[in-house]
Amino acid sequence: MMTGNINPEYRYLSILAKTWNEVYMAENLQTKQKCCIKQVLIDELLRERFQSEIQILQKIKAYPHPNIISFEDSFYYEKVTTQDKAITFGCIVMELGITNLQQYIQSKKQSDPEFRFQEYEVADFFVTMIKAHSHLQEIKIAHRDIKPENIILFNDENLLFKVCDVGFGTEIIDEEQRSRTIGGTVLYQAPEVYRAFKRRKHQAKYNPYKSDVFSLGLVFLLFATTHNMTKQQREELFDDEMKLYNYLREKRKQVKELYPRIKGVSKILKLMLDISPDQRYDFSQLSQIIEERQYLEVKSPAKINHKHLQSIVNLDDFQLDIKNKEDVYLDLNGMQNKSQDELLKFLETIAQQVKNFQMITLQIKLEMSCLNVRTVAPIEKILNRAQKLKELQLHLWNNKLGNLGLLFLTKAIMKMSELKRLTLEISNNLLSDEGINNSLPLLEGLVQMEELKLDFGLNYLPMDCCEAFFSLISAMPKLKKLDLSLESNYMNQVLSKLLKQTVKRLPLLNQLSINFSNIPMHNEGFYDLGESISELENCELFLWGSQIKDFGVEEFAKGLSKCEKIKHLNLTLWNNQITKKGCESLGQVLPKLKKLSSLTIDLSKNRIEDEGVRFLAKAIHEMQQPLRVLQFWIENVSCSSFGLRYVNRFLVTQTKLRNISLNFRSNQIGLDGMELLYNGFGQATQLETVNLILDHNPLGDDGVNTLFKGLCKLKELQSLFLSLESVQGSGNSVTVMLSSIKSWTELKELHVNFLKNDTDLADDINLKNRLLEIQSTAKINIELKTINQQQK
């Protein structure tokens, strides 16, 4: 790696990339600004090419664009080899970004396998990239190597991306002359360029702007789906135009389903990814049609909430002024104090207003209200008129729906032949086995379903109705995501056997969330769950208060060891009968999960003690695979400072960890434990989000101050939630913490709970003044609880 000064104006700091060329991070010694230097080996053949690249960059510098990387300088230098031969390097100085698009998506998916960009982010990216390349076309420059690696992230808050490596492109002087050198990365070449490449032709007649449009269209597919075409797929598809046409059509359809609120997104992709270059738009045409037809605008969902309705005096004259009639969100929470007659009139008014809407997505939220078989009628009416829905969410928990009310809803839902995502939150609604057995079978015709969430907890349902749930799930062979909550019903471990049988019938299922909490699963039930999850990528098991003992954990661990695909695992097992022996079994299998990137373990209120904590923390420490997200909760487990030895170690060894949540509430952790955390946080400088709960531990001022000193070393910290309730600290401790805020230059959010400590009114006034001082100089959202109030 090159460091030091090869040019008196720049100092090389580190290497960023090494492919055909070497790319370095450097510092401009005059301005003290960091920059990026691309270094190219120059020979007689490449000198002219390098000069041409500089000319193109200088032209772009004369006509700048906010989404094209800025060219700053260029220079040559010579280096003498060991054979006393001089070799020449050409250097291009550009502004320095954070990472490229390919690396950014990969890092996001490592921490969250289900990561997707938000709709507004997709729309903004599409528009800015098209405008950037339209600008290049206006000044007669074609990029010719559009790919994710050549799109650089400059701001990860608002996702500012810029195009780079434009110098590789071509300046178009004669529009009629279409003979161009074949270039670009094979995976992102347009079909006409790829064909010439396969025939080993160095020149071909093609329109470089339109080939760039196709390349950018493939990048757009990656951005929208976060999945790349493989090299093998590429060869198979591009050698058969019909296969390629069908593939691109399916991808456009997928993007439209993922982002239904982006106007014209499928149309734009069709214009960009037309196999025929004659039919394909160039960037100028794309910019024009986007402006004329307002394509790529995000349609906001029509949101109607209870405050809006309560402001209406005369419901008979009420008219909804809504532009987006495809996506409707009815947030009716806050109407709990309404009588049945008032609620019925409100709902009937809404039903009348939306009767002609062509809804694609519908979400209704009416919780903790007086919804019953009478007042549910308007909601049933809305559903009967929304037969083209693709997504439906009904959040109706804690009402009085009853068996007949549920039957009315399912009769309406069963007709929705295009429905792919369904959420039914009907917990605590006075249901019985009769209502379940009569209603759920009606939905078995929805075989196209891809995502299903059923929450029927707290209805005191018996085992007699369990088969209805699993029969319904088994009837949906296309399910990819299942979330089933039967918490606190009169059921038992047979649930796990039924789930195990059902999962085998769902070949596409890769995400499972199960909440069988407060149901006596015992050891046998936990073992069957372990057998159920072997083919999953994402699994969440909520089993608090389920009477699970060590033997159950041992048997579950055997099933877990077969989970070769698991990337995200959540085991919430608090308030069971697990001891250090169960922790040892679980600890032995965790290092075997080679693809795991996100882990949640909650063993709070189990008698695992120091040794149990050590087994689990040691397992995390010994993992060969890097974790990105970790939640480790051991509240009230009789743990002392001694138990945190391996917590300290995994903070050091898990170098890719970005987000961590540690809950050590109500243990016997003191100053020694804080010294261990001080050492751990001192090494884990890459952490960005920290959630740390230490309530009801005898830390004292020394312990709190030691902890703050360790946290101060987290230079990348963006969000900190710290709960220190009843830790025998004083106002001096919080003063130390506030003084350390200056060391967190990236911090955006700070939440500190310091209730029930030895603070008085003087401390309160002092802290209030310090907060005002800090917030006047730093843009940080600060929440601090000291005596009995919250200050912001």
UniProtKB/TrEMBL annotation:
This is Protein kinase domain-containing protein. InterPro entries: Leu-rich_rpt, Prot_kinase_dom, Ser/Thr_kinase_AS. It holds the Pfam family LRR_6. GO terms for molecular function: ATP binding; protein kinase activity. Residues 9-296 form the Protein kinase domain.
